[in-house]
Amino acid sequence: MLGICRGRRKFLAASLTLLFVPAFTWIYLFSGSFEDGKAVSLSPIESQPHSPHYTASNQRERESLEIRMREVEEENRALRKQLSLAQSRSPTHRRGNHSKTYSMEEGTGDSESLRAGIVAGNSSECGQQPAVEKCETIHVAIVCAGYNASRDVVTLVKSVLFHRRNPLHFHLIADAIAKQILATLFQTWMVPAVRIDFYDADELKSEVSWIPNKHYSGIYGLMKLVLTKTLPSNLERVIVLDTDITFATDIAELWAVFHKFKGQQVLGLVENQSDWYLGNLWKNHRPWPALGRGYNTGVILLLLDKLRKMKWEQMWRLTAERELMSMLSTSLADQDIFNAVIKQNPFLVYQLPCFWNVQLSDHTRSEQCYRDVSDLKVIHWNSPKKLRVKNKHVEFFRNLYLTFLEYDGNLLRRELFGCPSEADVNSENLQKQLSELDEDDLCYEFRRERFTVHRTHLYFLHYEYEPASDNTDVTLVAQLSMDRLQMLEAICKHWEGPISLALYLSDAEAQQFLRYAQGSEVLMSRRNVGYHIVYKEGQFYPVNLLRNVAMKHISTPYMFLSDIDFLPMYGLYEYLRKSVIQLDLANTKKALIVPAFETLRYRLSFPKSKAELLSMLDMGTLFTFRYHVWTKGHAPTNFAKWRTATTPYQVEWEADFEPYVVVRRDCPEYDRRFVGFGWNKVAHIMELDAQEYEFIVLPNAYMIHMPHAPSFDITKFRSNKQYRICLKTLKEEFQQDMSRRYGFAALKYLTAENNS
């Protein structure tokens, strides 16, 4: 210990010498430029020999000063070298089992209180703070509930992952909705050295439901108060973040601030940057008690072990009960109660420099927290207006936020070299499957796509569904990419029932879709549409993966397997619900066929009845679907019989049959080996037939395909010979798999293929 202090004294002495020697030198030089109490000019003109002020003594003085300046510069260089050596040799500080090194942190701010906060934030033993050990895990807690908050969490996590160099452990206090969304997202994101644990927010409601709260965050805005009880008892410290936070630096810098806590300091907070707690915002404004301007709880450093020993749970509860007797409710949720506790116990708080929580609500002093972009560390959009908040530099902050919003999350799957990762069974299985593929195979990319894990964000928009009392409800299932977005409003007008859509988008396209949907009255009026984003990766359109995602996340017992460029007839939803009962779909293995037609006209007067559709067929305005390019796909529907049919009729499977069907939700998934164009629906219908589904054509149902430009995948199929060869190879392998799974009954598929 004595050696450490001596080393620090030497380090400090070298630092002071480096700072003061240049200062004394310039004082000396400056005093030397006075003669008889008058300043002697050192301008180039006056220093020339022909100047009237020039003398021999002046010249000698100047030369001696220049020599002394060179000597001082040499001394400074030597001191800098000594300082750097002292810094590199400074002893490590051990805390627990973690070996740490030292680094400096500087704060900014203009007002007295902010300067005080920065000084307090930077004061520690020997004026230094330890950096975080390379592989030390940083723990982060976030309370998240609902669909919109889940989107915000993704942007926050992106900003953290972008800058991080340490393993991360996220503790997510989430309701059932957020857990479903975020569990799927992180499972498919597969970011190395990131662990996720969930805690049921609904189970915690009883802990805080007795506190009346006017804040827009609702009951979930109070749950940070109970983290000492909620998080594991062996977790000693955690960074707690609001969902509307954006990081502009490595979170390890904030984690390192824990080292500066002294005595009974257990809460790290930034001073509130608005006048809320000063009580002067309007007449009769009466905020909760706070110390000075109070503290903002968007970013909190919690020393959990000490808080538990201090009986934090009892402390905040007693304070809340006492204050609620006069305040009646909280206005800023947990922040009011935290501040009331700190008012009574100011020794609990360690004031963080304000750049750790630059608060962008209206009328704040956030501009005093930074002088330059490099000063920014954490941005907090803590206004209900969010990106529309008033701030002189809001355009810069908005662009920074949008950068992470639209940033490709796949690029954040970076390995932390040198840090051991926990064994991930899914990742290991994936690597094993990929290692078994032959990279020299000409169809390698097709085969690899089958195993690609696409990052998936379920329920990207708010979703509500009330189950039908008669248990006959049907969900329309489809998939799409950005170029089919214009079909959404039309489908919603034609189908009033629930819809499940899988959208294949990039991160930037997902935000374009969000803006499109939020700007559409038709889409915003529908809460029973589930939008599931599957993020782009690889060169193929994973059509069957998208269908499986949409199928898996329906809430009804039945589903109508459609495509996005088809418009169902008006009233089809109710007609299918009646057909489900009539044909006893609940107790039989049936696939109800909705006959498909097409138009070549972009403007179509949609037929309102079967009779009107038949008339348009006769006039050549409509055609049976793909009759001119792929007759086999829908020929088994028997359109001639359908024209006069009044009751459902059964048809037999034939090669290349690919109708659009209504089935129970427990039907087989689509085969993922088929990507892009070709055989993706054909293989699924073949599987249904192998499982002995009956194909029943509905006599009064129809759907119409709307024209559009050819997809990129069909263009590749038509122009690329290797694409067609690989598709043929995959077909043959699928048929062989069918033979292995279904035995003798599956031989007909090989025979039918050879005869077709």
* Main sheet: strands, sense, barrel: 9 strands, mixed
Judging by the overall fold, what is the CATH architecture of the largest domain?
Alpha-Beta Complex
Roughly how many Å is the radius of gyration?
Answer: 35 Å
Number of domains: 2
Number of strands: 29
Q: Give me the CATH fold name of the largest domain.
A: Spore Coat Polysaccharide Biosynthesis Protein SpsA, Chain A
Major sheet strand order: 17-20-19-18-21-27-23-28-26
Q: Provide a count of the helices.
A: 25
Tell me what portion of residues adopts beta-strand conformation.
15-25%
How much helix is in the residues?
25-40%
CATH superfamily of the largest domain: Spore Coat Polysaccharide Biosynthesis Protein SpsA, Chain A
Shape: elongated
Oligomeric category: single chain
Spans with pLDDT under 50 lasting ≥5 residues? 1-56, 82-129
Give the overall average pLDDT.
82
Sequence-ordered SSE layout with sheet pairings:
Layout (H helix, E strand, L loop, with lengths): L1 H31 L1 E2 L2 E2 L16 H34 L3 E3 L2 E3 L1 E2 L8 H11 L6 E2 L7 E7 L1 H18 L4 E7 L1 H14 L4 E7 H8 L18 H4 L6 E5 L3 E3 L3 H6 L10 E5 L23 E9 H6 L2 H16 L6 H11 L4 E4 L5 E2 L18 E3 L13 H12 L19 H11 L8 H6 L6 E2 L16 E8 L5 H8 L4 E7 L1 H12 L2 H4 L4 E7 L7 H10 L5 E4 L4 E3 L3 H11 L7 E5 L1 E3 L11 H10 L3 E2 L14 H6 L4 E3 L8 E5 L15 H11 L3 E4 L5 E3 L6 H8 L1 H22 L4 H9 L1
Parallel strand pairs: 7-8, 7-10, 8-9, 12-14, 15-16, 18-19, 18-21, 19-20, 23-28, 24-29
Antiparallel strand pairs: 1-2, 3-4, 5-6, 10-13, 11-16, 12-13, 17-20, 21-27, 22-29, 23-27, 24-25, 26-28
Helix pairs in contact: 1-2, 4-5, 10-11
